[in-house]
Every structure is written in structure tokens, then in C-alpha cells.
Amino acid sequence: MDTAIFSAVNGAHTPWLDAVMAGASWLGYFPGIWFLGAAAALLWAPLRAAAFRMMLAVALTYALGSGVIKPLVARPRPYVALPSARTVETVPADGYSFPSGHAATAVAGAIAGSRVVPSMSWMLWTLAVLMSASRVYVGVHYPSDLLAGALLGAACAYFVLGGRHPATWVSRLRTDRQPPDTVRIRP
Questions:
Q1: Mean pLDDT in the chain?
Q2: Has residue 175 been placed in a domain?
Q3: Coil, strand or helix: which one is 85?
Q4: Most CB contacts within 10 A, which of 103, 117, 165, 173?
Q5: Sign of the dihedral through C-alpha 116, 118, 120, 122
Q6: pTM above 0.85, yes or no
Q7: Is the residue at 80 inside a domain?
Q8: Which CATH number belongs to the domain containing residue 148 in this structure?
Q9: Short-list 22, 30, 15, CA closest to 140
Q10: Does 151 have pLDDT greater than 90?
Q11: What domain range includes position 31?
Q12: Residue 96: what are its φ and ψ, rounded to 5°?
């Protein structure tokens, strides 16, 4: 099933989509895009701790995915294993596919970034999905690589962020918090 989905996505090419997907893939080659967003948030004092956590989540995800898991699993990339695979960009220097570092850092960045600036969640998640999906389209990852990368990114982000839901973090930014009108006590 993994190969069938890869072949369907990788085989559907148009020139304009090649350019879009190659650009999205290029954005994720280094987790710097997420660091730039966090660096911008560092300029505003109330967001400094959250921005630092965003950087930490992405760095941990990148280190575990690319530095530990990829060499251990050593799964060949699709363009090596499948003669019908088409590459849209230059092939990555490392020959390993599992997990997708793009998907891992994108999901970690989107989760942590959504906690830094919740109003930007839609944009962060759109970027994360586009960066991740582009990797199958350009021929360097299987769909299961994306799934594993996304799970790794989510796990690392929730570990670094303490597993708190964004709403609880955002409530800490409010200076006008008031006690609830009523308190219910269960017997």
C-alpha cells in the first residue's frame, strides 16, 4: 500500500506543481524556517519562553530523527528502491528515508508555533502539510515516512511543551484573568 500511494502521488506531475512542491520541499531542508519564526517571537518578552520551547522542540525532533532513527533504520529512499520513481529535485545527500525529517520538524514546529502564536495556527499547519506532502511528490519519501516523521515531531513537541493543550498556555498570557463566576463542587 505504501508503494502504491507513493506511485500515485509521485506519478502525477505538472510543471507548475513541480515548482510549488520543489519550493515547499526546499523550505524544509533545514529546520531554520521554524527557528526564524521562533526568533521573531523572541523579540516580544511575553513569548520568549514559548519561543525557546519551540526551538527546543524542533531541535530535539531533528536530532532524534536524522541523527538517531534514520541511521538505525537505514531504509533506502524510493528513488533508489523503485525504478519508476521520479525525482523533481536534486537527491538528498543521505540515502535514508525513514522517518521524514521534513515531516518531523514541520509537525513539531507547527505544534509549538501554534502555542506561541495561536492565531497563526492555520498558516503554520498549512506550511507543515505542504512541506511534508511535497516529499512524496518529489520522490524522496514514502507516505509511511511522513507518518512516522509526523508522529515523532508530535511526540517531541508535546514532550518539550509538557503536553499542555494550547488553550491552557494561552490563558497564562492574559493579565486580566478573573475567577470564575461560579464554582461547582461535586459531592
A1: 77
A2: no
A3: coil
A4: 103
A5: positive
A6: no
A7: yes
A8: 1.10.606.20
A9: 22
A10: yes
A11: 2-163
A12: -105, 145
